[in-house]
Amino acid sequence: MSETPVPIPSGSVPAGTPAWSSADAAQWLQARPANWARPRWGVLALLVTVVWAIAVEPEPPCSDVAPCGPDWGGMVQMGLAVGLLYWLARLPEVTLIAAPALGAIVAWGELPGAGSMSQAANVAVIAALAFGWAGARERLAARSRQWHIAERAAGVRHPLPGAIGPLTRGTVPLAAGLLLCAVAAGAVLMGLRGIRADERHAARAVGTAAEVISQGEESVRLRTDDARRITVDAFYPEDYGVGSTVTVLEDGSWRRLVAEPYDAFGWQLLVLAAGLPGLSLLTVGVLARRRAAALRRSPVPALRVLERTDQEGRTWVYAADDGSGRTPLFVCLLTATLPDGVEPAPRITDDGDEDEFPVVDTRLHEAVMLGAPCDGGELVLVTTDRDGHQYVVRTAGPVRLPRTGKEPRLDALAVTEARSETAEPHDPGRTDRIAATLTPTDRPLRWGPGPVARTAGLAITAGVAASISYFTHSLVADGFGWELIPLIGLLFWINLGAILLNWRVTADSTGLWLAGAWTVRHVPWERLRAAQYTGEGSVEMRLSDGSTWYLTGLGEPRLERRLRLRPSYVRMVEEVTALHAHRELRPTERSSLRNHGVPLGPVLLLLVALTAAASLLV
After folding, report:
1. For residues 381 and 421, what is the distance between their CA atoms, to the nearest angstrom?
2. Cα gap 253→256, rounded to integer Å
C-alpha cells in the first residue's frame, strides 16, 4: 500500500530538478551487471581451480643441480591468487590488473616436467581468471551504463549545497594501507638481507662431499670424506636418502647444504599477511577519495527521489513516484554534513520506556539526490530529519546495489525472507496467522536441522577430513610449503558442517537457548528484538544490546521458494517471531540442559585433528 512521504521544504529543491520516475529507474536497474558476472561465481571458480592446481603441482626434490632457494615467484603467485578472492568481490578495478598478471605467471611458469594433470589444472586456473576478469569488466561497464542513464534522466546539473564538510572519505583506509604496505616492504628487505648474507657466506665457503648416515626432523647427519661426522640443518631431510651423497658448504662455524640456500619463507609470509590487506586498503582509500573529490569539483546531476532509513541505519533510495517503497534501487550509509553546532532531529521515536530501545523512523522521506548513482559511487542527499527540517547528508561508504529481492528491514521484529522483484510486499499480518497455527503448550519447543541439512553437514565434514588428511600427508612427504594456506582455509568449513549437523533453538518459559557451532547462548524473551531469515540464507537473532546471533549458510532462499519448501529454520524464525509477539503462546516450563543442544564445532575440530594425526602415523 502507498504511504505519504515526509515532504521536503520547497526551497531545498533546486529549480528545474526533475523527479526520477519509475520508468527511468527501471531502465537504470536493467543496466545492472548480468547475473553471470556476480562475484560469487568468479570467486568459486578461482578457489576450486587454485586448490586443484596446488594439489597436483609436482614438487621436485632439492638437489645440488637444482637447489630449492627462496621462491619469490611462488609468493607472488599465491599472493595474487589469495588477493583475487577478495578483489573479485569488492575491487574489480584491481581485478583487471591482477587477473592477467596471475594468468601470465601461471602460463609462463609451467615446470618442464609437469604432468598432464598439472597442465590441465593450470589451464583451468587461467580459464577461471579469464572468467573473473570478464565479470569484473562487466561490473565496471554496468557502472558506466548506470551513470550515463542517471545523468540523462537528470538533464541539467546543479552545484552541491554550501557546506558539506571536509573531504575525509578514504583517510582511514589510506593510513592503514600505507602502514601495512610499509611493514610488507620491510619484510621484503629483511628477506633480501638474509639472502645476501647467505650468498656472502657461500662465496667464501669450501664445498665438501659427504654421505648421509641418518635423518632428523629438521636436519641430516653426514660423514665427510675426511671421516668427520657433522649435523646440518635441512628443511627437507626426507629428500636425502641414507647412503646418498650431498655437498656441504662450510665457512667457519657456518654450514649448509648446497641444495638448500637460505629460505626467506617466514618473511614472505609476513609480506603476504601485511601486503595483501595493505594493498586492498590503499586501493579502497584512493578510490573513495577520488570519487568524493570528483563529486565536489563541478556541478553534478540532481534528481528528486524518495528515501528511508531501516532498522540497521542504512538508507534505501526509491523512485520519486514509488510511494509504496516497493522497489529499492540501491542502499548506502549516510552521514550528516551540517555546520558545527547544528544537529538534526534524529529519526527515532522514544516512548519514554528506558527498558525499550528507541524505534527508528522508517517513513519515506522526499529527498534531492546529487550525483549519478552507480555501484561504488558517492552521493550527496538533501533530505529531512524526523521533524521535516532540511539537512544534508553524504555517503559514508560506497553505494551498493541490493541483491535481487533484498528489502530493508522496517519493523523491529520481522521475518524477512528473500523474495523476487515481483513478490508481494511484506504482510504485517503474517505473524498473527502463524500464531493462529500454534497451540499453547507447557513443554519447551525445539527446532533443529532436517535430514537434508544433516546429510550436507556429514558430506562437508567428510570432505574436510579427507582434504586435511591429503594435505597433511603431502606436507609430511614434500615438506612445508604454500599448500599450508589452503589447508588452513579448509578449517573454516568446519563451522558450516557443525551448524548443518546440529544447530538447535529451544524456546522455554525463560527465553531462547541458541546452540550454534561453538557455544550455547541463552536469550531472555525481553532481550530478543528480531528474528530474521536473510536473503543470503542465514538466520539472525537481534538482541536489545545491539548484538546479533548468527546461523550462516543454512539455505538457499530462491531455491526454497521455487520448490515451495518450508525448511525447519524458516519455520523456526516464523514461530519464534509469533512467540515473541504473543506471550500466551510461550511454553510455561523450563527446559533441561540436555535439550539445549550440543555445539559440534569442538567435536569436529578434534575429529579433524585425529584424522591429521592418523595421516602422520600412517
Report:
1. 26
2. 10
